[in-house]
Amino acid sequence: MGHYYPSGGRNPFLERPVPAPPPPVRNIFISSFHENRREVDAFIYHWATLQRVFNPKALCSFDNDDFIDSSDPEYVMGQIRKKYLLDSTITMVLIGTCTHSRRYVDWELKSSLRRGENYTPNGLVGFLLPSALPQAILPDRFAANWRQDRNCYASYRYIPDKTEEMRRIIEDAQSARLTRAHLIQNDAQMMKYNGVCKVCRFTH
Questions:
Q1: In Å, how far are 65, 85, 196 from 77, measured between CA atoms?
Q2: Which of 127, 143, 151, 177 is the most buried (most CB within 10 A)?
Q3: pLDDT at 62 over 80
Q4: Is the pLDDT of residue 5 over 60?
């Protein structure tokens, strides 16, 4: 027995628009200063757990790693990528008042921006933490890759209010790995020690 469709013989179910596929959930490495841990945990809980915008990767300290005293930068960067960056494609720096002075943040940035035949650099995004408002001092390596006119590799922003905007920022960083990698500035030597904080005037 045939089916009768009142809309001129057409099946209305076949004419409904195909829903858009869900946005990809990227693996993102979170770089931050441990003194901002409460804010960082809240950020991750909101955007990764509640909104499910990204998968957070290793939140770490290198204090017990045997590679931190190595004098070979290539070895150090390789170990950071192998142990911590893992399968992330974007590095997200959560920037507080004193983040600029931390050598581990510089190491993570150096490793994230590294280019080679067998790997693509991570996209790079920085968000200003609420405790550092209205502005903070950027880590030097991040600052070298960001310009206000946006003709640069990195993105630096206030934390957005809307999920759609966060996804757009993440996808822009993902795209930058292929479209803006030529703008990466990563020649500076890795920091050997934590720097004097330019805000607090001492070394944390």
A1: 13, 10, 23
A2: 127
A3: no
A4: no
What single-letter amino acid sits at 39? Answer: E
Q: Read off the pLDDT of residues 170-186 as tens digits, 9 standing for 90 and up.
A: 999 999 999 999 999 99
What pLDDT does residue 82 have?
Answer: 85
For the beta carbon of residue 131, count every other beta carbon within 10 angstroms. 12
Q: pTM for the full model?
A: 0.86
Instruction: For residue 1, give both structure tokens.
Output: 């027995």
> Residue 4 is which amino acid?
Y
Residue 186 burial class via C-beta count within 10 angstroms: exposed 0-12, middle 13-18, buried 19 and up? middle
Structure token pair of residue 67: 């590679």
Question: In this predicted model, which residue has the larger pLDDT, 77 or 16?
Answer: 77
User: 166 with 160: CB under 8 angstroms?
Assistant: yes
Count of alpha carbons within 13 Å of 173, Cβ hemisphere only? 32
Sole residue written with tokens 């499910």: 52
Q: The dihedral of CA 93, 109, 196, 135: what is its sign?
A: negative
Pairwise CA distance, residues 16 & 18, whole Å: 6
Rounded-to-integer distance, Cα 94 and Cα 128, Å? 6
Percent of the chain at pLDDT exceeding 70: 89
Residue 130: the pLDDT is 95
Strand ranges, E, within 15-147: 26-31, 54-56, 90-95, 123-128
Chain Cα centroid distance, residue 152: 15
Q: Strand (E) positions, the chain?
A: 26-31, 54-56, 90-95, 123-128, 155-158
